[in-house]
Amino acid sequence: MIHSRKYINKLLLAATLLCSGQAGLAQDMNYARSIIKTLASPAYKGRGYFGDGAKKASEFIAAEFRKAALLPLNNGSYYQDFNLSVNTFPGKVDVALNGQKLTTAEDYLVAANSPACAGKFKVYPLTRADLANTAKVIEMLDQVGENFLMIDNRSIQDESKEQKTAVAQNLEALKSDPDLKLKGLIIFSTDKLTWTTLRTQGPRIVLQVNKPAIVPATINQIELNVEAKLVPDYTTRNVAGMIKGSSKTDSTVVITAHFDHLGMLGKDVYFPGANDNASGVSMMLSFGKHFSMQQPKYNTVFLAFSGEEIGVLGSKAFVENPLIDLNKIRFLVNFDLAGTGEEGIKVVNATVHTEKYQQLVKLNEEHKLLKKVEPRGEACNSDHCYFHEKGVPSFFIYTQGGISAYHDIYDRAETLPLTAFPQFFKLMDKFFGQL
Description:
By secondary structure, the protein is of the alpha/beta class. The chain has helices spanning about 1-40, 55-65, 130, 135-145, 160-175, 275-295, 315-320, 355-365, 385-390, 420-435; strands at about 70, 80-90, 95, 100, 110, 115-125, 150, 185-190, 205-210, 220-225, 230-245, 250-260, 265, 270, 300-305, 330-335, 345-350, 375, 395-400. The protein has ten helices and 19 strands. α1 packs across α6.
């Protein structure tokens, strides 16, 4: 009877510990989700440069740094200012074809370098086959004058390599040649509507349309009012903080993520950027919270960058004016697109730092956390880039699988699965512990 009671007590204790661990995990995931939900909400306006969305995001991150008792790195401030140029769409963005109003970001997008354009214009159709014929394009331009071309850019069968090259060259000339009288382009295709943000304005407005109900050859009129403003010297900022390590050395581990996204296309349409990159910020802040309660061995610096989407400018500004000694960095990990994971993770620079990559693979195999840890070579495609060029050992790691929402209005917090987020966090925690 006594032995049975002891056995039952052991079972109860084990159950209590298990429930406690699950509650802790749930609490961590609640924190992670709350970060993503906040940053991807309409209040942050896509974390771009119209309506101070990026500034609000930096303030939110600095407040989280403060809660975790991170030390500010810039003379008592978490902020590091830098300037960039950006083309914005701060006002009306209205487009109608043949009198039918299109829905912004669902039916069409305005190219990110487009200038303002308003009025009613004739539209002249051009097929992709015509676009491969330079003489035909020149003939059509004489007819179009200061109106619009509607290019049916859907793929065609048996198109030769030479035709594809001619199409690409002529399309680029129509978009960017400042000597053309052409007022604007409408490019009709079945390609996913994917936006970006750019630092310059082109000579004419370009619209990408994907609306199956439209028959391009029947479009003969466009009425639009698109307000655009080039801001040549916009001030934005990085956010930087640190937790001191227990080793009492100046050796440093760096965790980075960019918080900026695409901002807004007009006053009403914003790009949430839940996976890109509220998820990476959430991973970084989760480690800030974690290490504030469990001191890391080495000084751990947390860098939240602005300006990534517009040319990796925030990390460039930091590397050019570093707030820490870059030579003291043991390793840097950049988190970008951390919100899925059904197919595991991809590790940029794995072929450069093979020993550290194999360390990740081994940890994952030992603890059975992620489906795959796949290698990738060098790629200057996120905020690790300028550090890597300075000789800082670094990885850029992103999750794979899951939703296809990317640089569109569908990259929302409520549909971001965070499938492998806790496993990814656990793997990286073990990796940081072995540095």
